[in-house]
Structure formats: structure tokens, C-alpha cells
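Side project, low priority. Logging it here so it doesn't get lost.
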Amino acid sequence: MNGPIVVASHPRSGTHLTLDTFRRQFRECRSWKYWGEPLDRLYLNLESLMRREGAIGDAAARRILRRAARPLVKTHALPGYRAFYLPDEHHDLPAAWVERLGREASVCYVYRDGRDVMCSYHLYMKGHDAAAYCSIGEFMRQRHGGVSRVRAWADHVRAWLALPDVHPVAFEALVREPRRTLEGLAARLGVTLLGRQPWLPAPPASLWTLRRARLLSRRPETTAVRCHPPTERLERWREAFTPEDRAFFHAEAGDLLLALGYETSDRWVGESFAQRWSIST
């Protein structure tokens, strides 16, 4: 088995942790970069080929792919590599690349509890869009591609997981049971599992850690993105979601949380009502 390994995901679903873990643990994915090159030269970022302005170009993309036996390819696109992330800034992937990846690549799809995704995405987008400076409830209700952000997440997950030959990767399983998760993936992808300890790469200690890695390391541990405003903090959905937010999420996502194993029933939707009632009495 050979060819690139595509790591597809909805934004803020554990994409970089997965990429960095694959680079750490799968021998064939151990790419490199020149000193001073951006961290995303350790994998091919498809959105960098999809930019309406400033795309990296085919030649640069091919050079990145030649740096590993099984190079990694990152995307937040929809199946068929149709633009999804920041749609005003990206067009669909050129047809020649769609055909090549369809012929040569293995695809892993990373998913995460959508309620955690919304909180992380909210924080992240505050570094990019003034409209994100609002409550989590307002953020979830903002339109993305004509639907709410929650519905866009659910549609993204369902579309990728419905495809044949896509290898699902639950972010939470990778974090909690990395050895078991990676053993299964290595067998399906036909790559060599190194078993390096610890199993997961260490998160960046600071923004300066990432900057030093870019300048001084050819194989840095992490490519994690840290670009939210430093004064903002990550909310937790259990505290941040109002009863109305819970009901809205459930209505927009349907039974997806149950299908993915994050809930066993829809009782979570009404839990906040019961909690608030018990506190008030």
C-alpha cells in the first residue's frame, strides 16, 4: 500500500494532533522541512492549493509530497474536495488534484464531539472574524453555506463518514487510547507503527515554542495552530450552552451525537433544565 494519506476533518476537530501523531508514530509519514520553512511544509495543506489568491502552486505541492514515503495531506474540504473552510477565500480543488487523490490516496476522517467543536471553533474564529465576538449560542446560529454552523458540522461529518474506504478517527479515542487506535489504523493503512513513547506529541508550551520550531527544527513535534486572542479562553459546552442552545444543537444535528457514540439518548438536551431547577429550589 502506498500513496498519500489524506487527513480530512471539520475545523477544530483534532486535525493537527492527528497529523503530528501520524508523523511521530508512522515511519512512512515522517516528513521534514528546511530550517525557516513554515510548519505546514511538513504536510500538504490542500486549502493552500485552493486559495483564490496566493495559492502555493502545483510544483511546490509536489515537492512537499516527495518528502515522505506516505506524505500527509490536510483538508477541511467537503468530499470531492469542495471548498468548505472560509468559502469566500477558497475555490474547489482543481480537477487534476481531485483525480490524483482519488486514485492514489488513503483517507482518514477525524471527528470530535460537535459541542466541543463549536466551543473550540468559536474561540478560534475570534482571531479571524469580528462577528465571532458574541455568545456561543449566537455563534452556533450564524450561517455557514446557507445553514447554521451546527448543521454545517453535522453535514460535514455525515458526508465524509458515508463514503466507502474512509478510515474514521475519533479524536477522543486517539487521546484516551492512542496505542489501540494507532494499531488499528496502522494495520488498515499499511504503515509501520514505531511505538514511540509517549504515544502523543507534546502540545506547544507557547507561541514562542512554535516559532523556534519553525526556525530551528527540521522535524518539530507539533504543528498546532495557536492564533486565538490571548485574552480569550476556551468555554466548556456544559457551562456555556443555555437550555435553548442545547435544544437548538439537537434540532440541527439530529441523532448524530448518538450515532457517533457521544450520547446514548437525547436526555442531555434537558439536563440543564433539571440542574437549574434543583439549584433554584
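Brief comment: Residues 112 and 172 are 7 Å apart (CA to CA).
Revisit when time allows.
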